[in-house]
């Protein structure tokens, strides 16, 4: 066995072993990197250099701003208004509150960019509301957690920024525009599944559709929705960069949350900033450690070996794309979203490109795969949050979520094999 193979086994073996025993992911990445460097005889002085290099990126400056924007808007009193807007649009359907949950998640996802924030914020309101209206608690929780993944696709999503950084040379603006249609397709597939189950269990309808009420709710929600327009229109239109747009959106979110919706006071703002710092610290540690980990992968030629191994199974693009999705789904079951993006992108993206997939399309595929992983045990963070918010056993929530997994996988397959779903809008707007 060659020294390179031994070092590869040490790097990947120690990493996955620590992940399986639920070791903190950032430390698992760091320790496995150190062990690998020692096995290769490298000087550990280069480790902090690689870590600093990983976070020394202008585009990464957008991440803390997007996180701050999401927390400010998520706690600033906009949840009720987005729920009312969604209710005025789709509440009249059979299983109306389930449809409201899904559409509200699409609106809210464009502001928070976080499935966990969506579940915690909207779930705490909608799950009790649905139960009071006669919906099953586990069904209500399943709808909430699966629809929260729309926020990972709808811009502004800081996960798209992480992918753009890991992929290198991919436009953040193109990724932002690429997420709208896949997010809508995911929402539509979940609505179909919800409607079928609602008819089966005879869940109630809401009030009849009223155009006057719809425009009234748009007027109340417009301040929240404008935050998304600032980011997307500004970036795609070339008015400012993703980082600059994120900074402007933070100021806008602060003003709207404090002075317009008045859901926050200045003491609440400080609490939001503390929460942002906690989240950002985790993200930046992961990025720094993943940069050093990625350097080891490159030195050991792991991306090229992975490409050879995957393509040796089959040269058929359909089979390879299905295999890539399977790998990402399995990784999502044992790892959180950010480390998957940071670690797997340099390995799997070359394989995807060799099969004719555009990097933007693959980014959407990866994000949705990781989103499904957030809902699967044993490391499904959003699954845990949903169970905690609803106060329901995780096993029962998983059982109720099974039909929605099928809806999400159907959306994933459409995105994987129809490139125009992801690429049409970026090409139309000239961001690609």
Describe it.
Helix 19 (359-373) packs antiparallel against helix 21 (394-417). The protein is 79% helix and 0% strand. The chain has 2 domains: 1-44; 59-429, no CATH class. The model has no long low-confidence stretch (mean pLDDT 84). The protein has helices at 3-20, 25-39, 46-55, 62-74, 79-90, 96-112, 115-132, 137-147, 150-153, 158-167, 172-178, 180-201, 211-236, 242-260, 266-299, 302-313, 317-334, 337-354, 359-373, 381-390, 394-417, 420-429. By secondary structure, the chain is mostly helical.
In short:
With 432 residues, the protein is an all-alpha fold. The chain has helices at 3-20, 25-39, 46-55, 62-74, 79-90, 96-112, 115-132, 137-147, 150-153, 158-167, 172-178, 180-201, 211-236, 242-260, 266-299, 302-313, 317-334, 337-354, 359-373, 381-390, 394-417, 420-429. α4 runs antiparallel to α10.
Topology readout:
Layout: H1 3-20, H2 25-39, H3 46-55, H4 62-74, H5 79-90, H6 96-112, H7 115-132, H8 137-147, H9 150-153, H10 158-167, H11 172-178, H12 180-201, H13 211-236, H14 242-260, H15 266-299, H16 302-313, H17 317-334, H18 337-354, H19 359-373, H20 381-390, H21 394-417, H22 420-429
Helix pairs in contact: 1-2, 2-15, 3-15, 4-10, 4-14, 4-15, 5-6, 5-13, 6-7, 6-8, 6-12, 7-8, 7-20, 8-20, 8-21, 10-18, 10-19, 11-22, 12-21, 13-14, 15-18, 16-18, 17-18, 17-19, 18-19, 19-21
